[in-house]
Each structure stands twice: as C-alpha cells, then as structure tokens.
Amino acid sequence: MKKLLFFCCALPLFGNGQTFTKIDASVTGYTQGVNPPSQTIKTQDGHIWFNSLVASRYRLYEYDGATYTYHDQFYDSTVSANRDISASYFAQAADGTIYTQGEQFYKNGVWRKSPFQQDLLAQSQDGNTLYFNKNNDSLFSFTNGQMTGYNIALNQIPGIAGPFSAASYNDVVADNQGNLYFATQDTGVVKINVASGSVSYMPIYFQGVFLADARALLVASNGHLYAGSGGDYLAYHDGTRWHVMVNMQPWDFGMGRVDDIAEDSHGRVWIGSRTSSLSGFLGRFDESDTTQLFDVIWDTTSNHQYISNRNIEAILIENDSTFYFGVYQENYLLKVGVSNTISAKEQPVKPELAAYPNPVSDKLCF
Questions:
Q1: CB 35: neighbour CB atoms within 10 A?
Q2: Which partner from 133, 156, 219, 293 sits 20 to 30 angstroms from 303, CA to CA?
C-alpha cells in the first residue's frame, strides 16, 4: 500500500471559473496498459475509492481530497507472503469494512485475506447485505456479521451458466428483498431469489424484437430495475413490465454501450455511454418527466468536450454539483462540477416510450 501525492490537472471548465480535476492512476509508475475506472464509491469517511485495470489486474485507489493511497498488496500471514489486492468489484459493508471481489477485506487501516474464501458478488440496495459467490456452486449472504449459505450454483442456471463450469454475466445487483439480478448477453436479465432459489427470466423486448446484451444494472430508490445494453437501449422495469428507450441520437452516434447507471438524490437516473466512434455521452432520465425525453448533458465550454463527447465508464454522484466519472479515452477518474451544465432534449424512442409485452410469455416477467 503506497500513499502518493495527488496528481491533478486543474483547468478552466465552466464559464464562472469552476475547474475539473483529473485523478491519474498512472502516477503509480504504470504508464502502459492503464484502463479507466470501472467502479468508484464514496466510503463512510468521505473518501473516494476507485479501481483501474493495470497490467492485467484491477488495482485499487483511495482519494481523500488531497492525496491518494494506492492499495497494491497486503501481507498474508497464512502463507507468510505478500498477496496482490484485486478489485474488479468492491463494496463497503455497514460496519465500514471494505470487501473486494479478490477475496480480501480492509478494516481499521489493515488489509487481510477474507476468511470466507468467496468472491464478492453484489451489495443490497440499502447497503446492509453483501452477497458472495463461492466457486460458482453456492451463494452466501452477509448481514450484521452473520453469514448464511445457499445451495445455488450459478454455473447450472441457464442464461448465466458459461463454458468450463463458469458463470457468465455482465453485471449483478441486489434489491432489499433478497433478489439478485444478473445482466446477461443472450437472455436479458435473470432474477434469482436467494432464499427460495427460484429463478425468473426477464427478457427485454421492443416492438416484438428481443433486445440482447444487457450490460449495466441499477435498482433505483423507487424499486424500479434499470438495464442498459451494449446495443443502443436503456430500459426500466416497474415491477410489472419493461419500459424501453432506444435509438437515442446525440450527434447521430446512437446511444452506444451503456457502461454504468447511477441515481441522484432527486430520483433521476444518469447513464454513461460508450460508442465505437469514441464519442459516448452523459445522459439523464427522469421517469416523472411527462415529455419522456432524454437529457444529454453538456458543459458550458465552447467545444463541449469535458462531460459529453467522452466515453463514460463509471459514475459516482457525490452531490448535486460534484460528480466523478471514469473516462475511457484518457484513462483517469475525472471530478467535475456540473452546476453549470445545460441539457439538450433528445427524442429517445421511436415512436414513443412504452412497454411492449413479451410475445413469448408474460410469465417470464415478474
């Protein structure tokens, strides 16, 4: 674990002199193969944690507002050797402990190997329950210091099962009712109730056409499940049916691949998009907006280059005016003030925002 001076680039961004800050993971000495953060969280002490895929491993960084700590390795007393910290996914439990997908945890300033010997899978909407996956043949929930095991084999569930006894999915989230939702390439969304082991399939259709490649998920505060794809759509499920938004056309690039979805304190949903032309965008959608249009967010600089027209891969909303983004092209975490942004309304749906029932079986949706 290394504590490093925070390398920042503060340049005029908005008309009133606000600035943006670039948090550059390459100052650790790795200048080749550094990838953008795929996840960022704010911990209970107010610090910003984010990861970055560097040299084939997801490395972990902690930013306190002035300096950041590079969490690289820890000493594993069980084998008397240093171990790499790996964090393709990580979360903070209610007691402040940080767990990683790589079977480590961080508590009271010390890293240790997880006694559970399981990969962190998801965190419940309220943050009180963590879900772990062991060898793809069993699931565990961890609530208030209590671990409970379930005989659920992800590698045996159609739609999630992958080759070579593996599980294959793009994202997984959990609600407060003990349900896990998996975004899959070919099946849409798969729902598993952990306590009962029941499996439900939630394919997404638009005008009778199946929309494949569910990629990013979010359980919103109103209980609605949002799904973004690798193929130009965003949808939300209201508990009864899917509502589908497709063919958003900022700059005629289309929506592209949705890599992250976040919600602000007003119930508005933000998405980060990535396109093949390297010109993704930041967008916002509000279910209460009766126009059912989609906002594309621009900054107020003359060339609109810093927020939209970027491939946004991770979103953290700290408050109404401060956002953090993982940015694909520049491979850094970008902190921006968005109080002086403008939005351009885009017509997101052809012909309208509506839910189209599953033409195969409505029973596949809960």
A1: 17
A2: 293
